[in-house]
């Protein structure tokens, strides 16, 4: 697994995708692997995070010039509007490193 995910297994966690907010990039039931060493959204990318309501898989980017720091949380599915949150109000669990899909 180390070569596939470019990380030691001790740094990888798996989460199940629930819902369609990341379609077509990720599908409900996919298992995503995240590298828990990466908890800052720089560079932007796909992360697993606690958004104050639950654990979600989303694209996260820093809102440049924000003080205090804010992030934009973005779904791949255009049916879902992006939203902003204070960086201190979320907890990034890790950066997306790969997936296991059932489709």
Structural write-up:
- Helix content is 4%, strand content 42%.
What are its keywords?
103 residues; mainly beta; seven-stranded antiparallel β-sheet
Explain the layout of strands and helices.
Blueprint: H1 2-5, E1 12-16, E2 31-35, E3 45-50, E4 55-62, E5 70-74, E6 83-86, E7 91-100
Antiparallel strand pairs: 1-2, 2-7, 3-4, 3-7, 4-5, 5-6
Short description:
The chain has one helix at residues 2-5; strands at residues 12-16, 31-35, 45-50, 55-62, 70-74, 83-86, 91-100. With 103 residues, the chain is mainly beta. Strands 1-2-7-3-4-5-6 form a 7-stranded antiparallel β-sheet, with no helix packed on it.
- What strand line-up does the widest sheet have? 1-2-7-3-4-5-6
Number of helices: 1
Radius of gyration equals 13 Å
- Low-pLDDT stretches: none
Structural class: mainly beta
Mean pLDDT: 92
Instruction: Please give the largest β-sheet.
Output: 7 strands, antiparallel
Record field, number of beta strands: 7
The run of helices and strands is HEEEEEEE
> How much of the residues is beta strand, in percent?
35-45%
| Global shape | globular
């Amino acid at each position: 697994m180390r070569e596939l995910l470019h990380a030691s297994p001790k740094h990888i966690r798996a989460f199940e995708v629930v819902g369609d907010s990341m379609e077509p990039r990720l599908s409900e039931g996919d298992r995503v692997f995240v590298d828990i060493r990466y908890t800052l959204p720089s560079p932007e990318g796909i992360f697993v995070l606690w958004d104050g309501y639950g654990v979600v898989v989303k694209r996260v980017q820093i809102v440049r010039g924000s003080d205090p720091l804010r992030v934009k949380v973005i779904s791949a599915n255009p049916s879902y509007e992006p939203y902003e949150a204070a960086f201190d109000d979320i907890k990034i669990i890790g950066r997306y490193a790969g997936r296991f899909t059932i489709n």
